[in-house]
Amino acid sequence: MENQKDYNVEEIFSKALRAGRRTYFFDVRETKAGDYYLTITESKKFTNEDGTFYYKKHKIYLYKEDFAEFNSSLKETCDYIIENKGEEVISEKHDKDFESKKENKEVVKPKSEESEDVIDEEEIVEEEKDFADVDFENDDE
Fold this sequence. Notes:
The protein contains three helices and four strands, in the order ββββααα. β3 (36-47) and β4 form a beta hairpin. Helices cover 26% and strands 29% of the residues. The protein has two domains: 1-87, Nuclear Transport Factor 2, Chain: A; 95-133, no CATH class. The protein has helices at residues 67-85, 98-102, 121-132, and strands at 11-19, 22-30, 36-47, 53-63. The radius of gyration is 24 Å and the shape is flat.
């Protein structure tokens, strides 16, 4: 039996999708018998404390006989998510404006005997910006 490392798998077609620290690769490859199959690879970039980086990869092998059911299940699952949560990103990690979108309502100072003034929302946003508005360079872009 031929060693798997000795078998040179040629990529027939490849498509990459960059998504933040992740990159997804869709690669068409050829079996020893001459048929095609799909590999889907998720590659995620991590940084060591010394500034060097490495990638963790996860791979799925998808063969033609499973395409229809896989595609159907993927579409059904994506449709379910969109129908129940919409297309808007609602996560801090994925949406830099998450906090400002989340709190589009009036903020009121605690009641005291002296004042019942309403705090200016722009003032709060500006204070938060000074405290937490840090931009990090993203090596993926």
